[in-house]
Amino acid sequence: MRKQCVGIMGGTFDPIHLGHLLTAEAVRDALGLDEILFVPAAVPPHKQGKDIVLPEHRLRMAVLATAANPHFRVSDIELHRQGPSYTVDTMDALKAQRGEQSEFYFITGADAINELATWHDVRELLQKCHFIAATRQGTALAREELYRQFGELAREHIHEVMTPELEISSTEIRQRVRKGASIRYMVPDAVADYIYKEGLYL
């Protein structure tokens, strides 16, 4: 029986924007993945102590943003866990939930993959899933350094997909909302409506 190939897009998604969606679709199309699972983090380890919108808002925005794509799903799996949202724990939970019939591909930027040595239990994580480096012009994947650090694990489990350039950041969106500037075409219309309705980022 063929395994389901599942892409994982983890992140704070504060808020989710068109850059996230475009990257996910580009990787899904390039690798022929069956679905992309968006996993909002409850407490991102690198953002502990920072002012982040409540997880429930970020989850709802992710659901609104992905509703039109039949290959996109949203998981609240990290929102039910206490403490920092470590990726290795999420992979354990997803494997327990889905069994052996799914193969996982964790999608993130090449810059984040270049810093894999700083991730929690990264060797164990590399054994549990593939990493997809979404690369753009100007951000190179440090292949040789990754091979030096992780050997065959890196050669077999780290892959690269060129994705379209779309310079949008959640930080910029939050700043624009505070200033009363337009965020049209930076987030899906449903997400913009939700942000204004709930008074987020003011």
Distance between the termini: 50 Å
Task: Tell me the CATH architecture.
Answer: 3-Layer(aba) Sandwich
Rg computed from alpha carbons, rounded to a whole number of angstroms: 17 Å
Could you give a short account of the major beta sheet?
6 strands, parallel
CATH homologous superfamily caption: HUPs
Unreliable spans are none
Counting DSSP H or I runs of 4 or more residues, the number of helices is 9
How many β strands by DSSP?
A: 6
Number of domain modules? 1
Helix content: 40-55%
How would you summarize this macromolecular structure in one to three sentences?
The chain is of the alpha/beta class.
Walk me through what this model shows.
The chain is an alpha/beta fold and 202 residues long. It has a single domain (4-167), classed as Rossmann fold (3-Layer(aba) Sandwich). It is 41% helix and 18% strand. The protein contains nine helices and six strands. The protein has helices spanning 18-31, 55-66, 87-98, 110-113, 122-128, 143-150, 152-157, 170-179, 189-198; strands spanning 4-11, 35-40, 72-74, 102-109, 130-135, 158-162. Strands 3-2-1-4-5-6 form a six-stranded parallel sheet, with helices on both faces. Helix 3 (87-98) packs parallel to helix 5. It is globular. It starts with a strand and ends with a helix. The model has no long low-confidence stretch (mean pLDDT 93).
Topology:
Blueprint: E1 4-11, H1 18-31, E2 35-40, H2 55-66, E3 72-74, H3 87-98, E4 102-109, H4 110-113, H5 122-128, E5 130-135, H6 143-150, H7 152-157, E6 158-162, H8 170-179, H9 189-198
Helix pairs in contact: 2-9, 3-5
